[in-house]
Amino acid sequence: MGTTTSTGNVEWVSHLGADDVVDYKKQEFENVLSGYDIVLGTLRGDAIEKSINTLKPGGIIVSLIGPLDAAFARARRLNFFLTFVFWLMSRKVMRLSKKRGTAYTFHFVRPDGAQLTQIGKLLETEQIKPVVDKVFSFAETKDALTYLAQGHAKGKVVIKMQG
Fold it and tell me: 50: domain CATH number?
């Protein structure tokens, strides 16, 4: 698994289990990472397009941010106009992906009871371990949002609802 982070977090991210860690302040990830089967895209801008170069042939980019694609529109039975607009939005990344023998898809994250149950079991058995940066009380929600907006959280920020 490979990822990017800032200079101050390289050692921490490596300790979490990443095999390849790129300090984005010193290196361009697309020049360092390669040979991956899957890229999980969570950044806006040109990161998705750059990520194509990190995939091996047959690999896939699954974006949680966009651009939306025509397949997304068709799956939701959106009208022709919106399908066309989404196709236009994604055509550059689709063209680059096809040229490299890879694939691109947008995944819309939504609540899913079955998936949440499965994730709950993984948490209970400690097969996945969330990294919690800071816990705020419900009364401190504004402070929690301010903290998040600063962009320096190392893990999840939790708002405790009661207790």
Answer: 3.40.50.720
